[in-house]
Each structure stands twice: as C-alpha cells, then as structure tokens.
Amino acid sequence: KNEVEQSPQNLTAQEGEFITINCSYSVGISALHWLQQHPGGGIVSLFMLSSGKKKHGRLIATINIQEKHSSLHITASHPRDSAVYICAVSTSGTYKYIFGTGTRLKVLA
Amino acid sequence: GAGVSQSPRYKVAKRGQDVALRCDPISGHVSLFWYQQALGQGPEFLTYFQNEAQLDKSGLPSDRFFAERPEGSVSTLKIQRTQQEDSAVYLCASSLMALAAVPGAQYFGPGTRLLVL
Hints:
The complex is a heterodimer of chains A (109) and B (117).
Chain A: E1 4-7, E2 10-14, E3 19-25, E4 29-37, E5 43-49, E6 52-56, E7 59-64, E8 69-74, E9 83-91, E10 97-99, E11 103-108
Parallel strand pairs in A: 2-11
Antiparallel strand pairs in A: 1-3, 3-8, 4-5, 4-9, 6-7, 7-8, 9-10, 9-11
Chain B: E1 5-7, E2 10-13, E3 19-24, E4 31-37, E5 44-50, E6 53-56, E7 65-68, E8 75-79, E9 88-95, E10 107-108, E11 112-116
Parallel strand pairs in B: 2-11
Antiparallel strand pairs in B: 1-3, 3-8, 4-5, 4-9, 5-6, 7-8, 9-10, 9-11
C-alpha cells in the first residue's frame, strides 16, 4: 500500500464544473503539498498545508490531520486547468517529499 | 529567469552509455533534491544536498547513479552504463530551507526526459 494515495486517478469534467481531488496518507507529516504538473512541463507548487484550509483564486485546499486526508477543489473549472495534480507529503522530521501517483484532470470546453 | 533550470531537456542514450544531467537551482537555495519520475507515476526521491554536502543518497537505485554539487550551487546527476529501466523524467528541485525539521516549499525544474534505447 502506498504511503500517499490519491483518487481519482483520472478525471474528465465539463467546463464550469466543481472538481474535487482527494489525498490520503498513512505517515506522520509535517506538511502536505498540492502540486500541478502540465504535460512536458515542470511541477508547480499550489499549496503547502499543515492545518485547516487555504484558498488561491479558484483553488481551495483543505486538510484534516486527524483523518489524514486532504482535498483539492477547483471551482468553475476551465480547460486550462487540465493537468496532473499531485499530492505530496513532507514526513515528520525529514525534508523528503513522498508523492502520490497523481490525478490526471481533463476539462472539456 | 529566477526559476530552477535543467539541461538537457531531452536525452536519448544507447544502452551502456554514460549520461550527465545538470540542475541549476534558484540562487541562494540551500537544499537541492533529485527525483526520478517513471511514466504515469509520481516522482520518487533519489538524493538530497544541503549546500555541497550530500546528506541523503538513499533513493539512488544503484551504484551506477552518482550525484554531486561541488560548490553548493549547480548539481549534476550522472548515470553510468545506462539501462532501459533508467528511462524516466529526472526532476531537480531546490528549497531555501536547510533545516530538516522545517518543511519548506520545493521549487521544481522542468525535468530532463531520458530515454535509453
């Protein structure tokens, strides 16, 4: 069992839909990161969370430390949101990221 | 630009050939990481530098993989006698933070896509 699991693996949505991507982890963490990776491109950090909720534009990330679960929400989705969204955790006392396998999102116009 | 850069962006190597992948981190960033990302998978940790010191190389898959950061800035990941299973995207990331106990955001380069034939 992977230490960081994401669901769904693939997601297709119509433009304007509300999207939720989930991440569960089984290790102690110091922070959780949501990352975005476009095909052929590098990885961009969207959020770093250790508690609660953060919002940036149409993106919202939440984390529940007790349940070891985080969600990334995209409101009013747009085709330019099409990318792979990766959840990663920084484990307690270390600097390493442990990555989920990613959620491939495609938003159709 | 002010971001992390990597070169080459693409590399095709014949099996058995040695390759060298370069990473230029953000200026002033103390920490530097190398990750390997197989097709359809999330990245996996290879090695970590704090300045010029390689503090963790536990993720390097074999002794054919070697990384260095001699002056605490640019880093090179070298793969000797490449094998087909080495085909992957190699990502470099840097972080301002040096302390292991404090999680810092990592800034990623565009990656080098290595294909071993």
